[in-house]
Design the sequence.
């Protein structure tokens, strides 16, 4: 749903001024001709930007009345955009790295007080993919960054947080972590994936043989369409299936046992909320310490691990044991300070 009213007043203000003060063509001083105002939504709040625009006033100059805008203006937002680049980058991170859906991303942004609609999240996802494509389109710069490592290990994976939507395919080099290509596709057949792999091979091919970056191996999951596409484009190149999928399947029985153990542990630490209610209105040191312990228990209960390498049940057990040991030390310290245990007491 779109915004039904105007945005609230900006909470931050910033004046942007061009660094250049002399005209490139004639060398005369550039004068501030007018001010342009725009509002940008960033993760840290709503900003009102005052942009000073300079112009050359020399009528004989070929750059006469050419607008010089502040150099840093492009670091705030895209042209005509109302959301900052930090919002676009954050949305891209949630989508590509954490595989969050559009409604989930929208909820997270609203939780951070970013006034945005789900439709705007979708639009900014497209802007993010366009920026990634521009960044990866520099084949010469890519070969320069990878030229000294003796080849690349190509990793291929598709991300589809929303069922029925396009799949974002990301190809990266395992050795350097450099992203090589990112593109959204409606299909995931071998015929759809072959052009992606061909584009990567072309991007790594230099004008001379010594400038070409060799692909030493490929890593992916066991999807048959990926296997067939890799075999067609890179015949003879070793293709290894991702260890994560092997570990996940091997650890599935352990994961189930760990999940049941975590459920049983949660049942044993119920009652935090009644304890917090009993402390309402109290400001004494004992109440404050108890509140901190309640927060520690809550944090332990909500800290989920990522299987197969991080078992949430074992993590919860370790954190609860640490809290219990801390409570034991506090109790022992209180007992040692009791009047009857004071060696110098009467």
Sequence:
């Amino acid at each position: 749903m779109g915004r039904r009213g105007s945005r609230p007043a900006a909470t931050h203000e910033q004046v942007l001024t061009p660094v250049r003060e002399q005209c490139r063509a004639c060398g005369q001083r550039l004068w501030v001709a007018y001010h342009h105002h725009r509002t940008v939504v960033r993760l840290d709040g709503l900003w009102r930007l005052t942009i000073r625009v300079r112009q050359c006033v020399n009528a004989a100059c070929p750059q006469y009345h050419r607008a010089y805008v502040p150099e840093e203006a492009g670091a705030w937002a895209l042209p005509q955009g109302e959301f900052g680049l930090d919002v676009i980058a954050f949305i891209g991170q949630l989508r590509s790295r954490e595989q969050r859906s559009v409604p989930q991303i929208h909820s997270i942004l609203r939780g951070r007080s970013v006034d945005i609609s789900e439709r705007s999240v979708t639009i900014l996802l497209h802007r993010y993919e366009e920026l990634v494509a521009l960044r990866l389109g520099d084949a010469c710069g890519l070969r320069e960054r990878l030229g000294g490592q003796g080849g690349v290990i190509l990793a291929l994976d598709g991300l589809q947080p929303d069922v029925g939507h396009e799949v974002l395919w990301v190809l990266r080099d395992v050795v350097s972590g450099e992203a090589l290509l990112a593109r959204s596709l409606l299909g995931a057949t071998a015929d759809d994936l072959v052009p992606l792999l061909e584009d990567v091979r072309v991007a790594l091919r230099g004008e001379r043989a010594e400038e070409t970056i060799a692909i030493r191996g490929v890593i992916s999951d066991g999807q048959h369409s990926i296997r067939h596409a890799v075999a067609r484009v890179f015949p003879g190149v070793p293709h290894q299936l991702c260890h994560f999928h092997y570990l996940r399947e091997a650890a599935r029985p352990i994961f189930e046992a760990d999940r049941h153990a975590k459920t049983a542990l949660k049942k044993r630490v119920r009652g935090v909320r009644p304890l917090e209610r009993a402390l309402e209105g109290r400001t004494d040191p004992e109440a404050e310490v108890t509140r901190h312990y309640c927060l520690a228990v809550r944090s332990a209960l909500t800290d989920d691990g990522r299987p197969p390498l991080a078992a949430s049940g074992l993590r919860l057990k370790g954190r609860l044991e640490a809290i219990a040991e801390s409570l034991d030390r506090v109790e022992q310290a209180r007992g040692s300070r009791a009047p009857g245990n004071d060696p110098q007491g009467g």
Observations:
- The beta strands are 12-16, 30-42, 45-56, 67-68, 152-159, 167-173, 179-185, 215-220, 239-241.
- The mean pLDDT is 83.
- The radius of gyration is 29 Å.
